[in-house]
Specification:
The protein has about 450 residues and is of the alpha/beta class. The chain has three domains: about 5-85, SRP54, nucleotide-binding domain (Four Helix Bundle (Hemerythrin (Met), subunit A)), CATH 1.20.120.140; about 100-295, Rossmann fold (3-Layer(aba) Sandwich), CATH 3.40.50; about 305-445, Signal recognition particle, SRP54 subunit, M-domain (434 Repressor (Amino-terminal Domain)). The chain has helices spanning about 5-15, 25-40, 45-60, 70-85, 110-125, 140-155, 165-180, 200-210, 225-240, 255-265, 285-295, 300-310, 310-325, 330-340, 345-350, 355-360, 370-375, 380-385, 390-400, 405-425, 435-445, and strands at about 100-105, 130-135, 160, 185-190, 215-220, 245, 270-275, 280-285. Helix 9 packs parallel to helix 10 (about 255-265). GO terms for molecular function: 7S RNA binding; GTP binding; GTPase activity.
């Protein structure tokens, strides 16, 4: 995410290395590179210029603290201003209605239908809501089918009307259906076009007027950069929407849309799409995004993802097994699944300060655990629960069954043994480690 921009900003800050004080000369050189980096990231020229002027104002004349290098002070100023440029703080979603009506708008191909499903899933799993998805794209037959497929996958009801080509009527009927059947959120997926046109804008304006949504969201493909910002402005001029959703952010190496859009339309980015899976949706936090753009990682989001997968009851069971030396490969598989549920490996690495930058050129496949799982699944239940019984003959069979070789089986067994010993040690003097740490983290966020 934003690799190109991060690299260029990193090079810009190198100019200040070795200077004891920030001067007009070294600030000008650095900010020239910062502005160039923003323009290369497809940020609007005026925004890039205004941004660097504000940073220059704040940087000039500032004495460098004894614990800081000039480059570090400049990074802090840039980070603070980037955070403000992207909205300052996270914006919530309005769920005050009963039902709360959310209208989704955007161009065709922006990921609107898929994100409607992701948002419904987010509200169902994270906010304990009962959402209803509404298929109002009557022009693209595949859109209705797509929404039904998404709804079936998530266990969320989809409302559609066969033979009815009036989206306003469908939306109004869906809200009546929601009220009669206990749905407390209605997400209306509307038609998109390949470009902004009068017919499209009139139709969505009519739907908006008829159902008076509590929240109108504009969905845009972040990879289209400045075009995304221009499209958002056209929609906002007509619809006056409440917030922006940026999709495909995981594939955006530039970041122009994320940086520019708030400044242009004066509406917050509320959610971002970070992958293809239906749980690949995050609330947009400007400060965390600024950290990631500047290569500082995003530890808070990483902890939150870990917490979402943390199961206290399961942790207690594992704790007891470790204490009795009964931790086996079935338990290890459970741990692997929890890590996989947190998201793509490369995305997780990018959240660790320093690691994302170091691993930017390393390809980390999402099936990084594939061969480990294959080896474990080739073991018998007895071998999984008591790895010590695995002799050479068993290793040969396991390697053959998993499509690996004995060296890989040996390596896994050795790593598992080392991990088991480490976990046993952690159970000792300072133990109850994981549970206590995660419980404290949960407490801190309450």
């Amino acid at each position: 995410m934003f690799d190109n921009l991060s690299d260029k900003l990193d090079k810009a800050f190198h100019i200040l290395k070795g200077h004891g004080k920030i001067t007009e000369v070294n600030v000008a050189d650095t900010l020239k590179e910062v502005r160039r980096a923003l323009l290369d990231a497809d940020v609007n020229f005026k925004i890039a210029k205004d941004f660097t002027n504000i940073v220059k104002e704040k940087a000039l004349g500032q004495e460098v603290l004894t614990t800081l290098q000039p480059g570090q002070l400049m990074i802090k100023i840039v980070k603070d201003e980037l955070t403000q440029l992207m909205g300052g703080e996270a914006a919530g979603i309005n769920l005050s209605g009963n039902p709360s009506v959310i209208l989704m708008s955007g161009l065709q191909g922006s990921g609107k239908t898929t994100f409607s499903g992701k948002l419904a899933n987010f509200l169902k799993t994270k906010k304990n809501k009962k959402p209803l998805l509404v298929a109002c794209d009557v022009y693209r037959p595949a859109a209705i089918n797509q929404l039904h497929v998404v709804g079936d996958q998530l266990g969320i009801e989809v409302y559609s009307e066969e033979g009815n080509n009036n989206p306003v009527q469908i939306a109004e009927n869906a809200i009546k259906h929601a009220k009669a059947n206990g749905f407390n959120v209605v997400i209306v997926d509307t038609a998109g076009r390949l470009a902004v046109d009068e017919e499209m804008m009139t139709e969505i304006a009519n739907i908006h007027k008829a159902i008076t949504p509590h929240e109108t969201l504009f969905v845009v493909d972040s990879m289209t950069g400045q075009d995304a910002v221009n499209t958002a402005k056209a929609f906002n001029d007509r619809l006056n929407f409440d917030g922006v959703i940026l999709t495909k952010l995981d594939g955006d190496t530039r970041g122009g849309a994320a940086i520019s859009i708030k400044s242009v339309v004066n509406k917050p980015i509320k959610f971002i799409g970070t992958g293809e899976k239906m749980d690949a949706i995050d609330v947009f936090y400007p400060d965390r995004m600024a950290d990631r753009i500047l290569g500082m990682g995003d530890v808070i989001s990483l902890v939150e993802r870990a917490q979402a997968q943390y199961d206290e009851e399961e942790a207690r069971k594992i704790q007891k097994k470790i204490a009795k030396n009964e931790f086996g490969f079935d338990d290890f598989l459970t741990q692997i699944q929890q890590v996989k549920n947190m998201g793509s490996m490369k995305d997780l690495m990018g959240m660790i300060p320093g690691v994302g930058k170091a691993m930017k050129d390393v390809e980390i496949e999402d099936d990084a655990f594939k061969h480990i799982e294959a080896i474990i699944y080739s073991m018998t239940p007895a071998e999984r629960s008591k790895p010590s019984i695995i002799d050479v003959k068993r290793k040969t069979r396991i390697a053959k069954g998993s499509g690996t070789d004995i060296q890989q089986v040996n390596q896994l067994l050795k790593q598992f043994d080392q991990m088991s010993k480490m976990m046993k040690m952690m159970q000792g003097a300072k133990g109850k480690n994981l549970m206590r740490m995660m419980s404290q983290m949960k407490g801190m966020q309450r």
